[in-house]
Write a structure and sequence with these properties.
The complex is a heterodimer of chains A (about 190) and B (about 160). Chain A is α/β, with parallel strands linked by helices and about 190 residues long. In chain A, helix 2 links the parallel strand 1 and strand 2. Chain A starts with a helix and ends with a helix. The radius of gyration of chain A is 15 Å and the shape is globular. In chain B, helix 3 crosses helix 4. The chains are: A alpha/beta (about 190), B alpha/beta (about 160). Chains A and B meet through helix 3, helix 5 and helix 8 of A and helix 3, helix 4 and helix 5 of B.
Amino acid sequence: MNRLEAIKIVIENLSGDELLVHANGAISRESFFCKNRKENFYLLGSMGLASSVGFGLALNQPNKKIVILDGDGNVLMGFGNLALIGAFKPKNLIHLVFDNQVYGTTGNQPTISKYIPFSEVAKLLGYRTSHYIDKEDSLKKIFKEILKEPGPHFLHIKVSPEVTQICPRIPYSAKEIKERFISSLK
Amino acid sequence: MKAHDFLELLKKQGFNFFTGVPCSYFKPLCEILNKENDLFHIPAVREDIAVGLSVGAYLSGKMPVIYMQNSGLGYSLEAFASLHLIYYIPTLVLVSYRGPEDKGWEEHLIMGKHTEDLFRSFELKYSIFKGNITEEELKEIKDYLIGTQLPYFLLVTKGALE
């Protein structure tokens, strides 16, 4: 599966009002292409910080599930976030890492992700559950399961770097993204 | 000014979520914050991560405060530029002013020399906090945050908080 196919599975299997925090670049655009939800927060830049924003939300929105859609380059850049989430263990946090092994938007330069056992690292750092997934049916099954269980959960989702669909940019300004998101919480 | 009194003034203005990375200048403040619960204070592992965390807190209705050394300001400027300054996230940021006055720390010389230039270059509103701030002045800062939806920086000098 490629990343768009994996994101589509996640979006289709949400149970309702989960809050989604997206890493910058193609992850934001592909999720927006799958479904335009007010409960989605898109980082336009700030590589490495989607999980910081998601963690801040998870702490302060204990009655909502927070799903972070992250990439391998992003996680490697903000690696300290894994330690922070593992230390504080927010029960309502789900951290998805779509690992295509490349910096896709800048020309497919390789990341070092093939050397990094993300799911083992996350487990050691204190995530309650952690999985490595490389098939569509197991992604669907495990994602649906963890939505019902207390976290924090970590899914290392191996995807191919192949891009079959170029998704358009988010048509909102940063301020509009914020205002839409906040309005969904009221 | 006593860190305790400063914190009480901040609470009175509605600030209710703290995150950051310590500086020796903030030792008295951190001693109090570290006794608070996870909903009020999260020690971050890097300053830019604290910047990201404050966004999540603000989106949830909190009034965040970040604390960091000016060395961490370097790590954080891009995060402020791509988060607070474009999404409009009001946040009070306490930055310790290492460098100009505490000679003998070579690692702080360059950042100390340029800290205020950085604020001006990024058009970040700031003032220097030497240990005296009134309730009225803090209210003005809070009004600025609410009115502009932008961050405000207090550059904290040595011994300002005790």
